[in-house]
Write a structure and sequence with these properties.
single chain, six-stranded antiparallel beta sheet, globular
């Protein structure tokens, strides 16, 4: 996750206030950059989706040395690699969700641009939303906006918890 020129990095608990602060900071940093407004908007939108996913789908965990993490834990890094931006997130997920998440992201990665657009519209029109508010639109939207594959991994952490890392390249 630490490759390239780091623009913003955070490791700790995530809250709605933190997300608001991070988004304001990113918006300010992007506005100060020489980057094309279309790219700035794309980066910002991808970051919004990533942070919303972490906020809504993270598991609360205990650290391995029994220190309690009282909220949901997040690792978040935005870096510039050449002409592209890399957005990396990490959070804890219950192992029971790994197969579902892997299948969903593999499916998204296998679709063409037109197929992603059709799937997005299908979910939106059918209002097939989960109890957490989304219907998987966030990851589909990220893939559509970036044209990149979702680069993800699950790292075993504890008996029923894994650390989920996601890297997204915005060109």
């Amino acid at each position: 996750m630490n490759e390239g020129e780091i623009i913003l990095a955070y490791k700790g608990e995530v809250s709605s206030d933190l997300i608001t602060d991070v988004l304001e900071m990113i918006e300010s940093k992007l506005d100060d950059s020489d980057e094309n407004s279309k790219i700035r908007k794309r980066i910002y939108n991808v970051i919004v989706e990533c942070l919303q996913n972490v906020y809504h789908h993270s598991e609360k965990v205990h650290s391995k040395n029994d220190i309690v993490i009282n909220g949901k834990f997040l690792v978040f890094i935005v870096s510039k690699e050449g002409e592209s931006y890399k957005i990396s997130t990490g959070n804890f997920v219950n192992n029971s969700k790994i197969e579902f998440l892997s299948n969903r992201m593999d499916r998204i990665n296998s679709l063409t641009k037109d197929e992603l657009k059709s799937l997005y519209k299908l979910i939106l029109n059918n209002q097939d939303f989960t109890d957490k508010g989304g219907g998987g639109l966030g990851m589909i939207d990220i893939a559509r906006k970036t044209g990149s594959k979702l680069d993800y991994k699950f790292h075993n952490y504890a008996d029923n918890i894994s650390f989920f890392s996601l890297n997204i390249l915005v060109s």
